[in-house]
């Protein structure tokens, strides 16, 4: 992998079109960053994960070239497997989609710059990720442990992945005690968008995730600020930040609307709400 912009073929795209697209991406990115700065507290940094689901690698390359932003997220493992090798090696990838057990080992072992998996919801998947990362570290001792966020189903919706809040402590202990090649980074939820749109009422999902984090930190004997909160997408990241998020996953506000028709590779992965 290379940090050179030449890694993405552009010869078939008109130069003016490329420039206009890059300008639109940069404009969207800076708009989101300004909105994050407007609501974030001075004593808490907020990480922006730019989510490029079903967008070409050239979009990421253009945004990276213009801003040097390095945190990018993917919902589908197949897209990540295809994009990571052709994009700069200092990109810090986040996998945020529904995590399938049979993809865990490959995710952890084949993408050295996979910075975090944000959708871990079962000990079996943690074991598979740990095994995959162990294989990578054996070949590349300079690689880092894999950070993981436990996804918590705070809304109780059957359509959403995530473990129950009451089961989260057990999974956290399993990661810490049984998975030496993983680092528990924090907790993630996909909140109910309708709750966020009720501006007069704070989103109950975000409040519950924060409460769950605080209780688990106390049980583990850790300071709450050592465990992050990943909550908030394009439609509700500002409320997520107001309620304690340190990590937000924003796609549409930067990359624009996704195409409705998915390719065969994407269909192999279970869909998750569009960030």
From TrEMBL:
GO terms for molecular function: pyridoxal phosphate binding. Its cofactor is pyridoxal 5'-phosphate. Residues 34-259 form the Alanine racemase N-terminal domain. The modification N6-(pyridoxal phosphate)lysine is found at residue 53. The keyword Nucleotide-binding does not apply. Signal peptide: none annotated. PROSITE patterns: UPF0001. Belongs to the pyridoxal phosphate-binding protein YggS/PROSC family. This is Pyridoxal phosphate homeostasis protein. The lineage of its organism: Eukaryota, Fungi, Dikarya, Ascomycota, Pezizomycotina.
């Amino acid at each position: 992998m290379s940090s050179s912009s030449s890694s993405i073929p552009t010869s078939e795209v008109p130069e003016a079109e490329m420039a206009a697209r890059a300008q639109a991406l940069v404009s969207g990115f800076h708009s989101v960053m300004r909105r994050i700065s407007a609501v974030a507290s001075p004593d808490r940094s907020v990480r922006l994960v730019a989510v490029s689901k079903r967008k070409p690698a050239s979009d990421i390359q253009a945004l990276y070239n213009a801003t040097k932003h390095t945190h990018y997220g993917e919902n589908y493992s197949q897209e990540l497997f295809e994009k990571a090798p052709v994009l700069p090696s200092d990109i810090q990838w986040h996998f945020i989609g529904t995590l399938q057990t049979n993809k865990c080992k490959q995710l952890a072992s084949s993408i050295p710059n996979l910075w975090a998996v944000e959708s871990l919801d079962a000990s079996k998947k943690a074991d598979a990720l740990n095994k995959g990362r162990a294989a990578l570290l054996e070949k590349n001792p300079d690689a880092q442990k894999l950070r993981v966020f436990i996804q918590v189903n705070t809304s109780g919706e059957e359509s959403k992945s995530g473990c129950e809040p009451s089961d989260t402590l057990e999974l956290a202990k399993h990661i810490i005690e049984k998975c030496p090649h993983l680092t528990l980074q924090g907790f993630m939820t996909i909140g109910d968008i309708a709750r966020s749109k009720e501006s007069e009422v704070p989103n109950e999902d975000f409040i519950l995730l924060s409460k769950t984090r605080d209780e688990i930190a106390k049980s583990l004997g850790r300071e709450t600020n050592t465990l992050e909160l990943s909550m908030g997408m394009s439609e509700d990241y500002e409320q997520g930040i107001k309620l304690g998020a340190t990590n937000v996953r924003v796609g549409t506000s930067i990359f624009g609307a996704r195409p409705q028709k998915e390719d065969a590779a994407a269909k192999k992965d279970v869909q998750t709400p569009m960030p």
